[in-house]
Amino acid sequence: MNKKLLLIFALISLLPFLGKSLTLSTVPTFIGGNGSTGVCFNVTATKAVTITSLTNAFAAGAHDVSIWYKTLPINGTPGNIDALNGWTQVGTTVAMTGSSVGLTAAVATNQQIPIVMNVSIPAGQTYGFCIISSNTVIYTTYATTMPATVSNSDIIINVGPNVGFGGNPPTIATRSFCGAVDYNLVGSSNQLLTPIAGIYPSLATPNYIPGMDTVWLNSPQKLVSTSTNAKRSFWDLPDETFLEPGYSRSNVRYSSQTYIDTAKYNQSFTYNFKRRGFWPVRLLAINGTPNFIDTLRDSTVRYIYVDTPGTAPLSNFFTPRRKIGFGEYTPFVDLSDKGPNQWFWYFYNSTDSTQCNKCNNQPFFPNFFGNPMEQNPLFFGGDPGKWSICLQTWNARGWDTTCYKDYLEILNSYFVCSGSGASNVTD
């Protein structure tokens, strides 16, 4: 299981970074000055686009916000913003905190609305949009000296007469949206995709399946996020009311749930499971916009099975660097199976009983493991030569030792390149 886990983790680390959303803002053309409980505007797609989020300024205090759209342009008073009037609700957010102090602060305090949007507009089509709040949405009072639209080569935002309305229902004429529209070009590499959360190893239900992966009791286990389209992952153990020492929970934006050590764990999560049976594991996968406001997310609860090892451990290990230079470090990775909970690393030179090649050449820095009782220690190479490496592990059923002869070589030379030739210099 550990070899499979290492391979999966390596593959996930090589997944390409997803592209970023594009943004068109009406600020600073429109910078606030007025406000009410809603604001409406049109978006015309010059190219086929998908709207992913909206940004606006909100007066200080709590806001219950909803975003609505219709597949026709606003042309005159929109009327009631509801399904009976042809509007579709994209989503809502409760108790969002507005950050603007005064009605003219829209430039500095625009904030992205934490509502997931996935509204596709075909090329050449115009859709109407309304932002409705229980508090004050900041907008601009339109004047004839202002432009009616803000545009780039992809979209046009129309906030002019017969389009921009304020209030709820929006009946206050010539009120212009002063915010931003985040979008993706349909079919482009910058498409922002909804994540699909996944965990390895795990089961969909807490039911025993012959041959299933087992997490061993009292042995540190690394769980890996196999989520797709995810820039960030958060972990929690819902049934673990009191976490092991060194772990703590914290809040995650726009979620009522807390997650474990969010600054430390992302693509993987390591924990020492000390209770037999099935454990639920919750994973929140997030794909965000360029300023990392989390707009797309998926959450899943999967199960792992924890049991006592039936046999002594099987010691095994790996290092990515079998040859290192004098004075360099290399990490060693424990690949042992059957749930070890103690480790001891050591080395020897099989051709020299003194286990030292340059003891008499001062200054001398011996080889050593940073901490020979760590699961995954660093090894420092100070004594040139080939060295055999051993790992001894223990669990509740016994112990095991594995040694690899001449596994690591510490080089005692370097190359000096000059012109078309090179010389090998040995110290």
Question: How is this structure best described in words?
Answer:
The chain is mostly beta strands and about 425 residues long. Helices cover about 5% and strands about 45% of the residues. The chain has two helices and 34 strands. Strands 2, 4, 5, 8, 9, 10 and 13 form a seven-stranded antiparallel sheet that branches. Strands 1, 3, 6, 7 and 14 form a five-stranded antiparallel sheet that branches. A hairpin with an 8-residue loop joins strand 29 and strand 30 (about 380). It is elongated, with a radius of gyration of 30 Å. It starts with a helix and ends with a strand.
Question: How helix-rich are the residues, as a percent range?
Answer: under 10%
Main beta-sheet annotation: 7 strands, antiparallel
Mean pLDDT: 85
Shape: elongated
- Unreliable residue runs: 3-19, 414-427
Oligomer: single chain
Supply the helix-strand structural class. Answer: mainly beta
Question: Over all CA atoms, what is the radius of gyration?
Answer: 30 Å
Strand content: over 45%
Question: End-to-end span in angstroms?
Answer: 44 Å
How many β-strands, per DSSP?
A: 34
What count of helical segments does DSSP give? 2
SSE blueprint:
Elements: H1 2-13, E1 22-25, E2 34-45, E3 49-56, E4 61-70, E5 88-98, H2 106-109, E6 111-112, E7 119-121, E8 126-141, E9 149-151, E10 155-158, E11 165-167, E12 170-173, E13 175-177, E14 180-185, E15 199-200, E16 215-216, E17 220-225, E18 232-236, E19 249-251, E20 258-260, E21 268-272, E22 277-287, E23 296-307, E24 317-318, E25 323-325, E26 329-331, E27 333-334, E28 342-348, E29 368-369, E30 378-380, E31 385-395, E32 398-411, E33 413-418, E34 421-426
Parallel strand pairs: 16-23, 25-32
Antiparallel strand pairs: 1-14, 2-8, 2-10, 3-6, 3-7, 3-14, 4-5, 4-8, 8-13, 9-10, 11-12, 15-17, 17-21, 18-22, 19-20, 22-23, 24-27, 26-30, 28-31, 29-30, 31-32, 33-34
